[in-house]
Amino acid sequence: MILEVMNKGLEKTFSREKNIGTIIRDGMDIGLCVINRKRKKLQYAGAFLPLYLIREGNLVEISADKIIIGMNPEGLSYLDHEINLLDDDIFYIFLMVMWISLVDLKIKNSCTGVSGTF
Predict the structure, then answer these.
(1) Residue among 30, 24, 29 nearest 12 (CA)
(2) CA distance 16 to 68
């Protein structure tokens, strides 16, 4: 649900009415989690950034939607996932960042991640 709201906001921000004569083909990848420790629940929604869960030594990938936030003119729905958490669960969301160094004009990769334990 939150990703639909974010999508509409970005589409409005990038709308053609505001950017006359300019076509903006930009959007955002996101992985968003909400944790309710009392209920032992994790809610996750993602656009191109999956959630990885390590549970009892096994790696589980919770897939992200393949729909960019801000570039969804068809109004496709984003999936919300609710996961029951166990005491030793570990979860990760990774973001691959690419940048170009103007000094040496090389493309470099960096992998950053956010993790948590329940």
Answers:
(1) 24
(2) 18
Rounded distance between C-alpha atoms, residue 102 and residue 99, angstroms: 9
CA–CA separation, 40 vs 30, rounded Å?
Answer: 23
- Residue 110, both tokens: 């960096």
State the CATH number of the domain containing residue 83.
3.60.40.10
Domain housing 68: 2-117
What is the SS3 assignment for 76? coil
**pLDDT digit string, tens, across residues 5-55:** 888 888 777 665 555 556 556 778 888 888 898 999 999 999 999 999 999
Q: What is the DSSP string of 49-61?
A: --EEEEETTEEEE
pTM over cut 0.85: no
pLDDT at site 106: 45
| β-sheet with 51-55: strand ranges across | 58-62, 51-55, 90-100, 107-117
Count: domains in the chain = 1
